[in-house]
Amino acid sequence: QVQLVESGGGLVQPGGSLRLSCAASGFTLDSYAIGWFRQAPGKEREGVSCLSSSGSTYYADSVKGRFTISRDNAKNTVYLQMNSLKPEDTAIYYCAAGLAVIAGRRLPLDWAGYDYWGQGTQVTVSS
To answer: How far, in whole angstroms, is CA 104 from its chain's centroid?
Structure first.
């Protein structure tokens, strides 16, 4: 059974850091494009970052220079290191896996290109 489980969310002050984890079971992460997405109340789902099977990384302009995506193949886990967090980063963060990005049918931060989704983890940035 394919499953993605996110963890690591929480409450952090502006300027702080969090590291989100996305643990996969039932498939091998490094064969897929793995994306991080977020959705704030009343807003559309937004692509944050993508790590392709080749190791290429992609970031939304809003998080470039602050967020870093990485993968630990031995743990079958993808991470999102988030630094210099801002209140506008507050959202539920989801990880997702898909093949359409690898095949070139979808852009890396297009949520429609992902087939498997985790349940999400809440990130709140507030003083």
So the answer is: 19
What is the reported pLDDT for 30? 85
**Whether 67 contacts 59, CB under 8 Å:** yes
Give the CA distances from residue 71 to residues 8, 76, 126, in Å, rounded to whole numbers and listed in that order.
15, 8, 28
Give the CB-side neighbour count of residue 108, counting CA atoms within 13 A.
Answer: 17
In angstroms, the CA 16 to CA 106 distance is: 33
First to last CA, the chain: 40
Buried b or exposed e, range 4-24, using 16+ CB within 10 angstroms: bebebbeebeeeeebebbbbb
- The per-residue pLDDT for range 35-46, each reduced to its tens digit, is 999 999 999 999
Where the chain has pLDDT below 70, the residues are: none
3-state SS, residue 64: coil
Distances (CA, A) of 58 to 26, 55, 109: 25, 10, 8
Strand 91-98, strand 77-82: pairing: unpaired
